[in-house]
Amino acid sequence: MARLHLQPGRERTVLRRHPWIFAGSVARLEGRARPGDTVDVVAADGTVIARAAWSPESQIRARVWSLDAEAAVDHAFFKRKVAESVARRATHPMLSAQDGVRLIHGESDGLPGVIADRYGAVVVVQLTSAGADKWRDAIVAGLVQATGCVAVYERSDSEVRRLEGLEPRAGLAYGELPADGLQIVENGVRMEVDVVGGHKTGFYLDQRDNRKLTGELARDRRILNCFCYTGGFSLQALAGGASSVLSIDSSGPALATAARNLALNPQLDASRADWCEDDVFEALRGLNAEGRKFDLIILDPPKFAPSAAHAERAARAYKDINLFGFRLLAPGGILMTYSCSGGIGLEMFQKIVASAAGDAGVDARILHRLAAAPDHPVGLAVPEGEYLKGLAIQVG
Ligand code: SAH
């Protein structure tokens, strides 16, 4: 096995369980390794401290599989890790009864570059690192064994694979997809999940608990749901007794799915729902010009800042939508505002939102800090920017 020698002192973050070894931490590679091969990680004093997947094309030169220097990184290793991740969800009281649940959340489950989401009897897997890609068969076999699913569909079509020198890839990895489409029930609401063509793995599971909270806050409120995608927040709001729900997204296909989702739920009063295909930045200005007011506004935009380098421009975009969000709120109204940008931490996000509130001239207080659902755990060693963060803010 090849040996990856670290620069002096660079063993510390690894031992603190941050699984990434950046190019700048590497002194040299002794021996030969192909992308994805397992290498010994050697501290400057010669001690082997970990086993990791080698990825020569990426700035993240290696990702740690195990801090056990003797660990056998083989088929059985991945089957065990997959089974452990699945078991953690199965015993969590907020997750065990869910139809849609993330089974593996990459680094936080000790499987860097591996995402797996279960939608009913179908599992969708996404492999984004050279190491994860190499162990595809073991990971898929582990998922089949641990879940008894009827199909595993691969959605490794994310552009981040290129940073690892991997081509995007998608297709069936096991079994067959249900011929008549796939649906899940989330907190009493039926939703279509398009694992082949939908965003990410088909659905945004990380927002499940926040969608539930929205439903709980919605009674008799006028709701504005910005960046609504397939209508998850909108339908929970209707289920919670909202008096009206206006939903905006720039994607026609997403809105078409949203309309089908509404039809899948005859218990909801469809006459209270309006859908609008538009750019949110424009739409907010239009609503403001018309003097419209809402009692609960959701802002769940796509990632404006994938990394710290984009933080400044992203901050302006967050400021803009939040400013209009506050302007459109009626007295006592609530803004539920999110960021999934890796380049913006919670503290910075709160500052941006506070400055928007200041410019809008509103008196505001935080009711809830909002995080991703517990099937998206965050490793303690991961920087705070790398996960969904949100604030529910009530204005005076
Ligand atoms: N809240 C959703 C997920 C939102 S994903 C849920 O709970 O399922 C972000 C959405 O923003 C996508 O549907 C995308 O089509 C939309 N989007 C991206 N940029 C946009 C823009 N400028 N205006 C309107 N919608 C936009």
What does this structure look like?
With 396 residues, the chain is an alpha/beta fold. Helices cover 28% and strands 30% of the residues. The protein contains ten helices and 20 strands. The strands form four sheets. The chain has a seven-stranded mixed sheet, sandwiched between helices. It is globular. The model has no long low-confidence stretch (mean pLDDT 96). The chain binds S-adenosyl-L-homocysteine. Residues 204, 207, 227, 229-230, 232-233, 248-251, 254, 279-281, 300-302 line the site of S-adenosyl-L-homocysteine.
Taking the sheet with the most strands, its summary is:
7 strands, mixed
Helix content: 25-40%
Report how far apart the termini are: 63 Å
Q: What's the quaternary structure here?
A: single chain
Broad shape: globular
Order of helices and strands: EHEEEEEHEEEHHEEEEHEHEHEHEHEHEE
Residue stretches low in confidence (pLDDT < 50, at least 5 long) are none
Number of strands: 20
- Which ligands accompany this protein? S-adenosyl-L-homocysteine
Mean pLDDT: 96
Secondary-structure content class: alpha/beta
How much strand? 25-35%
Please report the number of helical segments.
Answer: 10
Adjacency order of strands in the biggest sheet: 16-15-14-17-18-20-19
